[in-house]
Amino acid sequence: MKKVALVTGAYQGIGRATCERLMAQDFHVIMADIQSCEYLAADYRTKGFSATNMRLDLAKSSIFPAIANSIEQQFGKLDVLINNAAILPDMGQHPSDLAEAVYRHVLEVNQIGPFLLTKALVPLLKKAPSARIVNVSSQVAQLAQLSDMNSPIKDDVCAAYQASKIGVNGNTVLFAKELEPLGIKVNSYCPGWVDTAMNTEELPDYGEEVRPKTPYEGADTAIWLATLDSNGPTASFFTDRDALNW
Ligand SMILES: NC(=O)c1ccc[n+]([C@@H]2O[C@H](COP(=O)([O-])OP(=O)(O)OC[C@H]3O[C@@H](n4cnc5c(N)ncnc54)[C@H](OP(=O)(O)O)[C@@H]3O)[C@@H](O)[C@H]2O)c1
User: Fold this and answer.
1) How far is the CA of 87 from the centre of ligand 1 (A)?
2) How far is the CA of 50 from the centre of ligand 1 (A)?
3) Which atom of ligand 1 has the smallest separation from the CA of 212?
4) Dist. CA 136 → ligand 1 center (Å)
5) Helix (H) and strand (E) counts for the chain?
6) What is the per-residue pLDDT across 52-111, written as a single tens digit (0 to 9) for each?
7) Which residue ranges form the domains of the chain, and what is each CATH number?
8) Mapping DSSP to helix (H, G, I), strand (E, B) and coil, where does residue 88 land?
9) Which residue from 9, 89, 158, 220 puts its CA 20 to 30 A from 106's CA?
């Protein structure tokens, strides 16, 4: 039986590239997004890949048990969970600029939703022989960077998004500790600066040699972490397959 992976935010950007790269490694991929991936998954099937789709809003946790039940019925297990979907509606906003509703919604989608989805899927991850969880985070939420007043990216402020990704890194270490005795590895990674719908603001001209990554390139560390062997790391944070401080 193929390994089964669920990727959130699968409709576009890094999530879609992650799905394509997992399919190329012979995974069955469940493409989950707030947008419908029905036609995308059908198109991948016509190309000979193994994909299904699932409509999922990370802010609506009441459907997570039904999602787990559906995966259990179809596959009986889950080998890989990639918590990739996120929103960034607060670029340029410092903590005291934030509307409460924005702060709460960003935490709901980016941190609490992935926590509760992971919790709902843990029983299925335990049924796979060597499950892996990959949480997509960001260097703008790295505490070592945020506490450095001279950091080169100190002006990249988006307080709700940053708080949510600090929480994502918390999710990583908490689940990693719980699941380590079972050989399940849980890691965070930052894809770097990637050309996706999330990056809509006018970017500075860094010169021709500095360009954002393609989504395919941005997904590389996710694929590495999803396919770690039993000697691989857990409870860690990476970019470009290199370890980062929290
Ligand atoms: N791009 C970068 O440079 C960069 C840098 C560092 C970290 N990251 C991280 O990489 C991950 C992927 O980012 P991306 O740039 O590929 O983003 P993206 O192109 O905006 O794709 C994100 C996908 O998630 C979906 N989504 C939004 N809200 C959702 C919800 N409530 N439930 C389920 N799905 C939802 C989006 O749908 P809608 O379009 O309808 O909102 C979209 O299809 C994120 O975790 C992001 O924080 C990205």
Assistant:
1) 6
2) 23
3) 3
4) 10
5) 9, 8
6) 999 999 999 999 999 999 999 999 999 999 999 999 999 999 999 999 999 999 999 999
7) 4-244 (3.40.50.720)
8) coil
9) 220
Atom of ligand 1 nearest to the CA of 16: 16
Q: What's the chain's average pLDDT?
A: 96
Phi, psi (degrees; rounded to nearest 5) at 109: -75, -45
User: How far is residue 3's CA from residue 170's CA, in Å, rounded to a whole number?
Assistant: 27
CB 70 within 8 A of CB 92: no
Identify the residue whose C-alpha is closest to ligand 1 atom 2. Answer: 194
Ligand 1 centre and the CA of 207: distance in Å? 26
Gyration radius of the chain over CA positions? 17
Hey, whose CA ends up nearest to atom 20 of ligand 1?
198
Is the minimum distance from the CB of 11 to ligand 1 under 6 angstroms? yes
Contact 97, 159 (CB under 8 A): yes
